[in-house]
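note to self: dont lose this again. the chain is below, predicted strucutre after it. 434 aa total, dont forget to put it in the shared folder this time
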Amino acid sequence: MIFVYRLLYPLLWCLSMPYFLLRRLKRRGYGRRCWQRWGCYEKSLSEKSSDKRRIWFQAVSIGELKAIDPLLRHLARDPRLEIFLSISSSSAYRMVERDYASLLLGYAWFPWDFFPVMSAAWAYIRPDLAILSEEELWPEFLTQAEQHRVPVFLVNGRLSERSCRRYRYFPFWSRWLWRHLSWIALPSPAEAKKFKDLGAPEGLLTVIGNLKGDRLAPSLSQEGCLLLRKELGFAPNDLVLIGLSTWPGEEALLLEWLGRLRREEPMLSLRLLLVPRHAERGREIAKLLQRSSFSWYRRSEGPGLAGADVGLVDTTGELEQLALVGDLAFIGKSLCRHRGGQNPLDAAFAGLPMVYGPHMDNFRTLSAALEREGVAWGVHDPEEVFERLRWLLKNPALRREISSRLRRWTSRQAGATERVLEKILQHFGLENES
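---
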């Protein structure tokens, strides 16, 4: 199968290159150090020591990076281990440079899955263990791991509905993938069933919980929260609706809802904080705001305008703290057909009641769990989203109760990181020194 893949990948890569070139133009930093994608690196890694083990982590974007954050930090403190991290998004790359560089042996863009490119990357990194996250299964990467006799773990493994359909059409493909993995750590029994239905051996699968449940809950003192609200231009008695990780088309809807709520519920002092999934869309959203009647500001230009109707967050790495100033959230990418929704955990850890549209396929298990707790609502269309948001805005006691439920729910999600850590150390025959 790998022979066919090696023939087809260059063709598919060439066909997709216009998309990547456009992406490079739109997103800041996507072209930086692009030679790393070709297996070319600025400086050599230190020579491998016989008393150390080297781990190659791959995290696609900020979401995956946050999920493995506690694990990375724990492993980086262990003098017996060396960590090399690769990433695939420009926002994650900037976060690694800012927050993780000092912890790592090295970091780089994840290389293209060409045979010569991936071969060069493996010769450069020389890991003793490779760890992929969620759906990151690249055939050439897995083939190189097999040739170098390096085990590959998949952590927080999940399969979107789109991936499941693809694997069902090509069952030989999924069986080939499972043969190249040594362990799959899954967030829930529902995800385990998907893998089993696609032929993954039961002995390969372990349900450990969601790594994202081990992240530290963001915290601000009451005084700190008031100061941040003031910095964002919000008064203490303002109600703040946050559009979390929004996608094209959703910002326009949120502005429409803001106008309607202002007219229909004039007693509500409502403000809107827009946090697009890609900060690089700031200019596009700014043009939308310029055409509106609202007062607004851009976060990248400094402190917010006092009394502004709308704040546009066109910066990265602030979502967790900014979510704490909100009163409720709309989860983005959920009104976009075939998009699959964004992760609702940022809202959950901030204690925000949340509403989202019908397209949460990528987080179906998680959103279903939140809905069972009565802390999130998935609705069918934009009008239902609006009505649910209005209902929550008018019920402060309910919002407080939901925040309490979310604190209890998030406290029950911890433990997956410890299980992955135990598996890694067990694989190397090491004892946990913490």
